[in-house]
Amino acid sequence: MDRGAVYPYFLTPSCPWEGVFLYSQRKGVSKLPNLLTMNNLENDKIMNLLKRAEQFEKGEKASLEGAVVNLFFEPSTRTKMSFEMAEHRLGLSVLPFETAFSSILKGETLYDTVKTMEAIGVKAVIIRHEEEEYYQQLAGCKVAVINGGDGSGQHPTQSLLDLYTIHQEFGRIDGIHVTIVGDIAHSRVAKSNAAALKQLGAKVSFVCPEEWSGDYDTTDDLDALIGETDVVMMLRVQHERHAVSALFSKERYHIKFGLTEARERKMKKDAIIMHPAPINRGVEIADSLVECQRSRIFKQMENGVFVRMAVLEYAMKGRE
């Protein structure tokens, strides 16, 4: 494959982020490089991040200096551990942080927590928080801020690893048909991906119960789309944000909106299955399909390390 055709934007080894920094346009947030949202992240910047992730996957080494902290105020397995792996591979010092043993329980604000990290010499913080746009609170903080998920708002590194996985599979994003299925209104993954995919030229369809449509144009007929989509992206039913039983039983949801074995057989020959995980097996997707030939679910997790290495390098080197 001609990588020059696949990745039209190039990085220079001596200064891979020259001219491609994302500076936050959000009011009050430091104008130094951060990654807070996929909104207004230009195509060339996205493609440079994907290219850098590919270089890391191929074995290219990079070394960063300094300490980072992962501030996770919501449960996480994949995002938190993926960031930690990326940080270790880049040679960073990872300071432990546990919400249950922090001064947050004494009433400390997020701003004061981040300013404390900055004061002791931390160079970057990765934050997952239940409040949408929590980063609006961080006016005056100069430490690099990487959004690991804000409530039902955005999840930019998940979106980037999804884009990388799609690009890796098809050699392009433009013209690819992606169908996102599930809790669209409450999903930061759906919101992040919807904006980025459309901006990069993909066709995006949404399938969900009407009550979960939010501001999106959706359908409740997955069967009408299953045979014409290139990527079926299933979303987790977020039991912690609402009760699925108010609309459907788990069994009924699987029949109506889940990726069943029967639906998988109707997919295009080269179509793939994606899911940000964690997975509710037998609800969003049949247990037998989680690791089937079409599935890229665990590949997404693998790719997340390389993408987050690229994001950390971009955010931290931009401050040098």
From TrEMBL:
* GO BP annotations, alphabetical order: 'de novo' pyrimidine nucleobase biosynthetic process; 'de novo' UMP biosynthetic process; amino acid metabolic process
- What catalytic activity does the UniProt entry give for this protein? carbamoyl phosphate + L-aspartate = N-carbamoyl-L-aspartate + phosphate + H(+)
- Keyword terms of this UniProt record: Pyrimidine biosynthesis, Transferase
Q: What is its EC number?
A: 2.1.3.2
Q: Which organism is it from?
A: Planococcus citreus
Lineage from the top down?
A: Bacteria, Bacillati, Bacillota, Bacilli, Bacillales
HAMAP family named in the record? Asp_carb_tr
GO molecular function list: amino acid binding; aspartate carbamoyltransferase activity
Q: Which InterPro entries match?
A: Asp/Orn_carbamoyltranf_P-bd (IPR006132), Asp/Orn_carbamoylTrfase (IPR006130), Asp/Orn_carbamoylTrfase_sf (IPR036901), Asp_carbamoyltransf (IPR002082), Asp_carbamoyltransf_Asp/Orn-bd (IPR006131)
Its function? Catalyzes the condensation of carbamoyl phosphate and aspartate to form carbamoyl aspartate and inorganic phosphate, the committed step in the de novo pyrimidine nucleotide biosynthesis pathway.
- What positions does the domain Aspartate/ornithine carbamoyltransferase Asp/Orn-binding occupy? 174-314
Identify one Gene Ontology CC term for this UniProt entry: cytosol
> In its UniProt entry, what is this protein called?
Aspartate carbamoyltransferase
Q: Per the similarity annotation, which family is this?
A: Belongs to the aspartate/ornithine carbamoyltransferase superfamily. ATCase family.
Q: Where, by residue number, does carbamoyl phosphate bind?
A: 78-79, 128, 155, 158, 277-278
Instruction: Name the encoding gene, please.
Output: pyrB
Which pathway does it serve? Answer: Pyrimidine metabolism; UMP biosynthesis via de novo pathway; (S)-dihydroorotate from bicarbonate: step 2/3
